[in-house]
From TrEMBL:
One of its GO terms (cellular component) is plasma membrane. Belongs to the cation transport ATPase (P-type) (TC 3.A.3) family. Type IB subfamily. GO terms for biological process: copper ion export; copper ion homeostasis. Keywords: ATP-binding, Cell membrane, Membrane, Metal-binding, Nucleotide-binding, Translocase, Transmembrane, Transmembrane helix. Its main location: membrane. It comes from the Bacteria. This is Heavy metal translocating P-type ATPase. GO terms for molecular function: ATP binding; ATP hydrolysis activity; copper ion binding; P-type divalent copper transporter activity. It is found in: Cell membrane.
Length: 292
């Protein structure tokens, strides 16, 4: 039988947009030592706008058209922003063949007979694309302003980059502050660059962050913390976060995120408000206190 107070808490929280999918996890969440947040779409809105397109040896519109044609095959929030921008600028998209998604790194494929690669420096390195130092300096400069930058290679040669801007959720400030005040360790993991990670972490007062974390490394990080005896909650929104949500003592999904994340989570924040992590911990404390 479900203790009455738990049943009450479940409906109380559901009315406030916090969905408890696993009651044991709800009872556990009061004891977590660390709360790990994904960055994009979790602490930030994950709604990207294009802020700059830099092209080398090809015109700006030509580059955007090729990249959008490839990204049209990807579900990633970055991909959607690029396609949207191309549409807004009246560009016709072309079909892509041999499309491949490289999780946490980017996408590759062929458009108009050209082999395209769009993504992180690691993806470029894996494909043997040389990046000039003055170009990388410009990329770092954009990232230091908090912009996510994706690199573009055409036929194995660096052809430019696209800078995208996201917005920190206004609710994230209070969420981080309150969790720290409760004595929880707050950690941010992201597949994005060191520069962007530092920008967001400093903005929010997150002391510990890791950048360029590949999806399987998020799981490893949680395993590492748990092996030290820490109880860990993971908060994420993406397909890439699903394994980490399952690995954590308590997996918490952002409601506006992907279905896969929601299905992998113990608790769902329907309103996509990171402050609800604080609320659910408090509610767990009160509820479990009453059961004892
Ligand atoms: P996060 O952990 O921030 O949610 P991801 O693991 O999904 O990010 O992606 C990490 C990085 O990989 C992105 O910042 C981006 O540089 C690159 N990337 C992923 N998917 C794409 C894509 N479809 N197009 C271009 N770059 C991508
Ligand atoms: Mg994310």
């Amino acid at each position: 039988a479900i203790p009455l107070v738990v049943a009450f808490s479940t409906s109380y929280s559901a009315k406030r947009g916090i969905l408890i999918r696993n009651r044991d996890a709800f009872e556990r969440v009061k004891d977590v030592d660390a709360v790990i947040f994904d960055k994009t779409g979790t602490l930030t809105e994950g709604k990207f706008g294009i802020s700059e397109v830099i092209s080398q040896d090809i015109d700006r519109r030509g580059l955007l058209r090729l990249v959008a044609s490839l990204e049209n095959n990807s579900e990633h929030v970055i991909a959607r922003a690029v396609v949207e921008e191309a549409m807004k600028e009246g560009l016709d998209l072309l079909p892509a063949t041999n499309f491949k998604a490289h999780p946490g790194r980017g996408v590759t494929g062929e458009v108009e007979g050209h082999y395209l690669a769009v993504g992180t420096p690691l993806l470029m390195e894996e494909l043997g694309v040389k990046l000039e130092s003055h170009f990388l300096r410009k990329v770092r400069e954009l990232e230091a302003q908090g912009k996510t930058v994706i690199l573009v290679a055409i036929d194995g040669k660096s052809a430019g980059c696209i800078a995208l801007s996201d917005r920190v959720r206004p609710e994230s400030y209070e969420a981080v502050r309150e969790l720290k005040a409760m004595g929880k360790r707050v950690i941010m993991l992201t597949g994005d660059s060191e520069e962007v990670a530092r920008y967001v972490a400093e903005e929010l007062g997150v002391d510990i962050f890791m950048a360029r974390v590949l999806p399987h490394q998020k799981v490893e990080k949680i395993r590492e913390l748990r092996s030290k005896g820490l109880k860990v909650a993971m908060v994420g929104d993406g397909v890439n976060d699903a394994p980490a949500l399952l690995e954590a003592d308590v997996g918490i999904a952002i409601g506006s995120g992907t279905q896969v994340a929601v299905e992998s989570a113990d608790i769902v924040l329907v309103k996509s408000d990171p402050r609800d992590v604080v609320r659910i911990i408090r509610l767990s404390r009160i509820t479990v206190g009453k059961m004892l």
